[in-house]
Amino acid sequence: MRSILITGAFGQVGSVLKRIIYQDYDLTLTSRSIPYGEKGINLDIRNAVVLKEVIKAVRPDVLIHLAAMTSVDGCELEPEKAAETNIAGVEHICSEYSGHVIYLSTDYVFNGKNGPYSETDPTDPINVYGATKLAGERLLLENNPDHLILRCNVVYDYNPYTKASFLNWVIESLQNKKEIRVVQDQINNPTWAESLAEAIVFCMKQEISGTAHWGDADYMNRYDFAIKIANTFDLNASLIKPITTAELKQPAQRPLNSGLKTDYLKSRLGITPPTVEDCLLSIRGRISK
Ligand SMILES: NC(=O)c1ccc[n+]([C@@H]2O[C@H](COP(=O)([O-])OP(=O)(O)OC[C@H]3O[C@@H](n4cnc5c(N)ncnc54)[C@H](OP(=O)(O)O)[C@@H]3O)[C@@H](O)[C@H]2O)c1
Predict the structure, then answer these.
(1) Which pLDDT tens digit goes with each residue over 211-261?
(2) Ligand 1 atom with the shortest distance to the CA of 9
(3) Correct CATH for 3-156+191-216+258-273 of 3.40.50.720, 1.10.10.10, 3.30.70.330, 3.30.1050.10
(4) Which of 14, 46, 107, 133 is the most buried (most CB within 10 A)?
(5) Which atom of ligand 1 lies closest to the CA of 10?
C-alpha cells in the first residue's frame, strides 16, 4: 500500500481527502493541532526539525501539502507569520523530503483583472496570501519540476465543525432569519471540497506534474452563489443583500474577475467538473439523511 503524508490534514480539504482515500492508502495525518478525537501527528510546518523526524519515521511515497495560513486578511495583517508558514514551510519540505509533493495553491496568484485563468497565464498577486502561495509554488518547482502545483479557488463544503465555511455561514444565517451581505463583484468557479479531493486522487494516480488548475463547472459571483445555496436549501433568499468588495474595507485586496480554467486537467484526467447545482443537491441529500 502506498504511503501518503498530509500536512494541514484536518482543514476543509484534508478532512474530505482523508475520508475518500483512507481505505486505499497508508495515511499519516499531520497538523499544527490535532482536533479532539482524531488521530494524527503534531507537525507545525514552520519547524524543520520535527518535519525531518516525521519524514524519517514515515518515509512517505507522496506528501500532500495542505498546511497554510489561509486567512487572506490575517496574512495581510501578519505578513511575517504568513511567510514563515507559506514560504518557509515549503522550504523545509524541499530540504527534508525528496519524494513527490502535491501542493495546493490558489487563484490568488493572479490579479483578478481578466479571469478565468489558465495555467500559462502570467501571475501577479495583489495580496500577501497570494504572494506567499506563489513563492511556495516557485520553490517547489525549482526544487523538482515533477512536483504538482494544483491551484483551486473558493472551496466549500458543509462542515458542522468549522466556522470558516461560506456554505455553513449562508445556511445557518438564513435558518436564523439573519440578513447577510455578500459581495457581487468577486467572480470565481466555486469548488466542492469533494470534487477537489477527487481531482487530487486522479492527479496522484496519473502522476500529473507541473502546474494544473481545478475548479467546478460554473463561474459566478459570490452573491449569485449565495442565492443558489438559499434556493437549494429552501431558505429565504431575500435575506441576502448584494454588496461590493470595496464597501467591506477589508485589509487585503481581492482579485475580482478571477476563477480557474480546467481544460488541461479535464483532458489529461478524462474527468468533468460537476456543476454547483449538482454539488449543492448532493450536500443537501447528505445533510437530510
Ligand atoms: N479553501 C479554499 O478556498 C482554498 C482556495 C485555494 C487554495 N487553497 C489551499 O488549499 C489548502 C487547503 O486549504 P483548506 O481550505 O483546507 O484550509 P484550512 O481549512 O484553513 O486548513 C489549513 C490547515 O493548515 C493547518 N495549519 C495552519 N498553519 C499550520 C502550520 N504552521 N503547520 C501545520 N499546519 C498548519 C491548519 O491547522 P490549525 O487549524 O491548527 O491552524 C488547518 O487545519 C491550503 O494550502 C490553501 O492555501 C484553499
Answers:
(1) 999 999 999 999 999 999 999 999 999 999 999 999 999 999 999 999 999
(2) 43
(3) 3.40.50.720
(4) 133
(5) 43
253 Cα to the center of ligand 1, angstroms: 20
User: Of all atoms in ligand 1, which is nearest to the CA of residue 67?
Assistant: 24
**pTM (predicted TM-score):** 0.97
66 Cα to the center of ligand 1, angstroms: 6
Domain ranges of the chain: 3-156+191-216+258-273
Contacts of 9 (CB under 8 A, 6+ apart): 15, 17, 18, 29, 30, 31, 40, 66
**What is the 51 CA–ligand 1 centroid distance (Å)?**
17
Name the residue of 10, 18, 32 to mutate for ligand 1: max ligand atoms within 8 A of Cβ: 32
Q: Is 159 exposed, middle or buried (0-12, 13-18, 19+ CB in 10 A)?
A: middle
